């Protein structure tokens, strides 16, 4: 197991290195001058030159690249070119909001999606099944940002039930602020997980051991939940990992629509203003999460499926 | 866990209860707080000497004060219109190189940092000269010395009859506490500076905004509303929704045609405050690129652009520019006061004739870069249509705002729109956009003179330098008027329109004064909230 973990970690390092290199190069290719973005278009040449020198933007690109990599290795991601705040501080301020949104959305998606899938599978080709399939279709078809805007206008603006923007301060206010953004992301999750659970459960319910359980007189609930759903969870757990990744990336659009703080909004603002250090730091965090989630999913798979073993 | 009917009902009840708590939270906002939503991602600094982002100045405007400033809601159009603030009186030497300020006694800094004295003023001015964003402005300051605790003498390298406008009433010369700077330290001071204004800083949150409360030991009349929250909502839709829902009281408007009408359609009671003129929208004609190296083509361009129609399309935020200054600014030009040949009335037929005389009977085609930001793109799309009627086929390439400015600074544009806000100090726009020393360079190391004026063809450097060294205000204005006329003859830079900086506010907020002109920020110490 430890060897397997080390192997997977070994795979992660070049992935992260490649992502960082791509981001570094992409930002330098993109037209735009961080000095102008920081000081404004009325800035005089002397002010721009002084800014570039102070921020290390006047040294050759290769030197900037190695400075950046050296910083990553020593956990020093530099400072924002615009506010001079350490990038790690900005990430520490924003990351909890993205994590809480992702977790809340996943929780809502699982709570709604898996029971819906069970209902659909156990009522195959009946009205509940048709309803769940229709819901899944709509869930797949509606983009996050559109659904978010729709919910925002209906429940925040017209009905006044939820705040328009922000993330709240105390616990109750934070739950209140997160409800609609999480619901937006959860809608797609529920659609995906519902569909996946239905398909997986239908397949399992057709297996011989399920027929045997029924023949032995086991109660239908026991057949479905203990024999059926338990075994159907294997593909669903893989789907959960994928779903977590898509929720994380979907949070960018939702943070913008609901004007919530978070890594996504931090990144979008930084890209618009060519704040290289913040972009690089933000992407590093996203890439780190993707690698971590993939790693966790691989490990979970090994644990829950005895057939999967490291050779 | 299984979800049965009972669990589901319990969950629904809990959600409903939570929503009800939330509703009461959303509407139970304190009446003693003004919330303004600004168009940026988050505050960068609260030290006025480091300001690089316009919206941050809304907080600094409440926290800090200069020695002198115009009355609330307007610019000072002449030196005598400045009012005493932290200085009670001042005088200028005959050669306009020495300015003496007598300070107000008993002014207290926030958070118990003691009385403001000449040491703080000297410290503020010298700090602004050495570090920060205003070093170019402060370059003319030779020295600042204290003459006792309540008098400061500023000596200049060159005369400046407009010193109150060019330097004293700038962000960088907002007076800060020397003692606080030394105790807090330079880095923390950037977001935790200490001033003397009617509001003091409570919290600087780089994500959500800047939070202020009334300063109870303020030397003047105390602020009427207890708290101000400068919140940051970059997305225009989210900002608009926040105003309409009542979550905030004031927002920065979107400066695009029709936006004011649309907000008034949603709520006719919304109040709109605008600084006139706001931004000066100018059009740089690149003199290094054919066919614009030809004066007749530039004259054709002037006849092809209906400047009145451009400003009308941006109404009520748009205003007319005849020269480079609005007509009520010193030394603004009025069409009727100009020689016939410099009036350039809108006349597409005349434009076509001029193009033919210049050797382009079939018209001309060229590419022009443009920012996607609403104020740029809407203006340039109008200009594009007007030019088409006169035989100019301008292929607009609309792109990212940051990239647009970088491209302009790298001399990649042919017809570059520029929007900047200026006070009634005419030489500022000349120095930034016409001076040969500010000529744009392909490597990005140049300045904002995108037309290469004064390099490709003779410019107005001499006139600008004479104006800057004038020892009396009337001579200064006369020389600036000469610059305006010469620019209309040479046409390196075209004044397109002005565009007001605009705030929309809920009618329950009364500012306590009308907003007529001024920078893109105003004080809220006289404001009340119903």
UniProtKB/TrEMBL annotation, chain A:
The chain crosses the membrane at residues 12-30, 103-122, 134-155, 175-193, 232-258, 278-304. This is Peptide ABC transporter. It is found in: Cell membrane. Keywords: Cell membrane, Membrane, Transmembrane, Transmembrane helix, Transport. Coiled coil: none annotated. Its main location: membrane. Residues 95-301 form the ABC transmembrane type-1 domain. It comes from the Bacteria. InterPro entries: BPD_transp_1_N, MetI-like, MetI-like_sf. Belongs to the binding-protein-dependent transport system permease family. It is a multi-pass membrane protein.
Automatic annotation (TrEMBL), chain B:
It comes from the Bacteria. Signal peptide: none annotated. PROSITE patterns: TAT. Residues 82-439 form the Solute-binding protein family domain. It is found in: Periplasm. Gene3D superfamilies: Dipeptide-binding Protein, Domain 3, Periplasmic binding protein-like II. Belongs to the bacterial solute-binding protein 5 family. This is Diguanylate phosphodiesterase. It comes from Devosia nitrariae.
């Amino acid at each position: 197991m430890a060897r397997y973990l080390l192997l997977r970690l070994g795979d992660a390092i070049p992935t992260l290195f490649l992502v960082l290199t791509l981001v570094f190069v992409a930002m330098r290719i993109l037209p735009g001058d961080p000095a102008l973005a920081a000081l404004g278009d009325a800035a005089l040449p002397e002010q721009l030159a002084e800014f570039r020198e102070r921020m290390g933007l006047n040294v050759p690109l290769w030197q900037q690249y190695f400075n950046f990599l050296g910083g990553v290795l020593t956990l020093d991601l530099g400072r924002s070119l615009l506010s001079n705040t350490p990038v790690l501080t900005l990430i520490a301020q924003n990351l909890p909001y993205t994590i809480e949104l992702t977790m809340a959305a996943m929780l809502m998606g699982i709570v709604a999606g898996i029971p819906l899938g069970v209902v659909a599978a156990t009522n195959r080709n009946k009205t509940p099944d048709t309803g769940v399939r229709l819901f899944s279709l709509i869930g797949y078809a509606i983009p996050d940002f559109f659904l978010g805007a729709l919910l925002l206008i209906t429940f925040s603006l017209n009905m006044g039930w939820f705040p328009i923007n922000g993330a709240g301060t105390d616990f109750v206010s934070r739950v209140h602020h997160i409800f609609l953004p999480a619901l937006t992301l959860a809608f797609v999750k529920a659609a995906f997980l519902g569909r996946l659970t239905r398909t997986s459960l239908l397949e399992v319910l057709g297996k011989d051991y399920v027929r045997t359980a029924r023949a032995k007189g086991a109660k239908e609930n026991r057949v479905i939940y203990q024999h059926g759903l338990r075994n159907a969870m294997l593909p669903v757990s893989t789907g959960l990992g994928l779903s977590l990744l898509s929720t994380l990336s979907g949070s960018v659009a939702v943070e913008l629509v609901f004007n919530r703080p978070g890594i996504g909004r931090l990144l979008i603002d930084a890209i618009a203003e060519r704040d290289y250090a913040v972009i690089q730091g933000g992407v590093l965090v996203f890439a780190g999460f993707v690698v971590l989630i993939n790693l966790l999913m691989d490990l979970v798979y090994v644990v829950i499926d005895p057939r999967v073993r490291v050779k | 866990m299984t979800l049965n009917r009972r669990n589901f009902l319990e969950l629904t009840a809990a959600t409903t209860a939570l929503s009800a708590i939330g509703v009461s939270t959303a509407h139970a906002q304190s009446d003693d707080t003004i919330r303004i939503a600004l168009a940026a991602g988050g505050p960068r600094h609260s030290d006025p000497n480091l300001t690089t982002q316009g919206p941050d100045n809304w907080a600094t405007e409440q926290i800090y004060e200069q020695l002198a400033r115009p009355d609330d809601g307007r610019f000072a159009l002449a030196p005598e219109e400045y009012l005493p603030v932290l200085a009670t009186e001042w005088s200028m030497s005959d050669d306009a190189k020495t300015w003496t300020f007598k300070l107000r006694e008993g002014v207290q800094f926030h958070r118990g940092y003691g009385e403001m004295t000449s040491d703080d003023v000297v410290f503020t001015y010298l700090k602004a000269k050495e570090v920060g964003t205003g070093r170019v402005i402060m370059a003319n300051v030779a020295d600042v010395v204290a003459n006792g605790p309540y008098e400061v003498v500023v000596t200049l390298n060159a005369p400046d009859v407009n010193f109150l406008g060019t330097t004293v009433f700038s962000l960088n010369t907002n007076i800060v506490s020397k003692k606080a700077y030394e105790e807090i330290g330079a880095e923390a001071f950037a977001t935790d500076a200490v001033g003397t204004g009617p509001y003091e800083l409570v919290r600087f949150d780089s994500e959500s905004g800047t939070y202020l409360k009334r300063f109870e030991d303020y030397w003047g009349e105390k602020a009427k509303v207890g708290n101000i929250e400068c919140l940051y909502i970059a997305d225009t839709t989210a900002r608009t929704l926040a105003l309409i829902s009542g979550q905030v009281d004031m927002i920065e408007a979107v400066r695009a045609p029709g936006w004011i009408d649309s907000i008034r359609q949603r709520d006719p009671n919304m109040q709109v405050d605008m600084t006139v003129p706001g931004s000066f929208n100018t059009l740089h004609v690149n003199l290094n690129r054919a066919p614009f190296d030809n004066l007749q083509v530039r004259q054709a361009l002037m006849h092809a652009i209906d400047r009145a129609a451009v400003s009308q399309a941006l109404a009520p935020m748009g205003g007319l520019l005849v020269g480079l200054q609005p007509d009520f600014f010193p030394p603004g030009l009025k069409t009727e006061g100009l020689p016939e040949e410099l009036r350039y009335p809108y006349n597409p037929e005349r434009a076509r004739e001029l193009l033919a005389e210049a050797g382009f009977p079939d018209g001309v085609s060229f590419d022009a870069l443009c920012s996607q930001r609403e104020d740029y793109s809407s203006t340039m799309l109008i200009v594009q249509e007007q030019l088409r009627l006169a035989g100019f086929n301008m292929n607009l390439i609309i792109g990212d705002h940051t990239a647009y400015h970088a491209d302009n600074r790298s001399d990649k544009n042919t017809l570059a729109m520029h929007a900047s806000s200026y006070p009634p100090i005419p030489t500022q726009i000349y120095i930034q956009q016409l001076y040969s020393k500010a000529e744009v360079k392909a490597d990005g190391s140049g300045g904002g003179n995108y037309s290469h004026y004064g390099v490709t063809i003779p410019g107005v450097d001499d006139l600008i330098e004479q104006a800057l060294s004038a020892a009396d205000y009337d001579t200064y204005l006369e020389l600036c008027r000469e610059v305006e006329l010469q620019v209309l003859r040479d046409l390196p830079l075209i004044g397109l329109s002005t565009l007001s900086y605009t705030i929309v506010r809920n009618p329950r907020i009364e500012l306590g004064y009308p907003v007529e002109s001024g920078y893109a920020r105003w004080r809220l110490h006289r404001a009340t909230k119903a």
